[in-house]
Structures are given as C-alpha cells and as structure tokens.
Amino acid sequence: MRYLLAISLLFATLSCSNSAEKGRMIDSGKLTHLISQKDKTLVYVWTTWCSGCRKTLAETLPRLQENIDTSEYQILLIAASKNKEEVDSLVSASGLQINSWFLDFTGPDKGVFQNLGIQFLLDKTFPKAEIFTRAIPVFFLADKNGKVLNKKLPHSYDEAIRLLNK
Hints:
This protein is α/β, with parallel strands linked by helices. The protein is built from six helices and six strands.
C-alpha cells in the first residue's frame, strides 16, 4: 500500500512539473500566435553551449530591448536546450525573461537532434523561408503576418539597431 502511495505521489509531482514546463514549450502554432501580437518580432533561437549565443543574450539583446519601440517590436527567445535551470539562469541575468520559450526536441542536448528540432519548428512556421542554415544561433525578423523580413540579423548591437532603424 505504501509503495502504491509513493508511486502515486511521484507521478503527481512529475505531472505537475511537466504541465508547468509544457506551458513554456514552443511549437509552430504558439510561435505563429506570439509573432502575430506585435508588428515585428525579433526571434532568437539559441543554446547554452554556444558562446556566441551567450554573448548576444548578455550584451546585444538587452540593449536592443531598451532601445527598440516596444509598441512595434518584441523579442522572443527560443532555447534549444534541455538544461532548463541553465537557460533560466542565463535569461534571468539578461533581463529578458518575459518571452523565453523552450524548443521541444528528441535526443541529446547538442548536435543533430537540436538542429532537427530547430529545422522542424522553423520550416513548419515559415514554409519556404529557408531561415535555418544549420548554424546556431538563429536570429531573424518577422512581421505579424509571419513574413520573414530579414533572415539573418547581425549579432552586434550597433549593426542590428542600424538595420532596424532603416
């Protein structure tokens, strides 16, 4: 009886944590909905093992968030990582936690499975746009109708803000 109770409690705990995590998982439908909320969306797909991703997350994106017209633009962060604690720590340090999502993919936290997850999400959300070139991070600009306006945004603040202000 105690064994059955322990298993039930463990299952209930896992179910609760999984439902909270599922609320932050992004799929094509959710990405399309989020993009439709603002005129323009900067989408940043990144991972924890990428040093360039960490630098852009820590330096460029917070400055962009401070200096873009937030009535027109939003920034969406999509972490292609299963290390949720590390993702949350890095995002929290950047101050961009509001629009932070997780990409659900099968397989290890590095390599081909991550790439396939990113490819699937972007191909399904933006058919024929050919955004993903197998390089991480992926940083692009889309309008609220799902049209990709720029497939490869620069990772430096000065270049990115100059492009956005054109």
